[in-house]
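Input chain follows. Return structure tokens only.
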Amino acid sequence: MEAGVDQEFPALERELTVLLRRARASSGEMAREVHPDLEASAYGLLFRLDEYGRQRATELAAYIGVGKATMSRQLHALEELGLVAREPDPADGRAWLVRLTDEGRHRFRAVREARRARYVRELAGWDPREVAELARLLNQLNRGMEK
């Protein structure tokens, strides 16, 4: 093994485990703030739709990393809650696009702003360059895991 690997990778695993556990709990809390019946796993779908606009269910499934059946179930639940709607894809009449409803966008953005305010409070002692570096490294990690 390379020098440092014995120490660096267990430390990385430990910190990612803590981060993911906290992120899961936080996503559950925020999902319930959007709507009391919203599953934690669906929060990421709302985030993606708010950031990138309407998309096909297959695109959402690929981004989140779930199968078509799971995505279909999650989208149906979001539709029932009035947070998303489906509309025909103008580029392909056989396909559907998913979009946030006005209510879904309003609820999601209110919770998202509260989350950002919490990050600002919790990282107030950090140098802004460190925050930017953390975001860059997390993006690099996420891109690497997509492969």
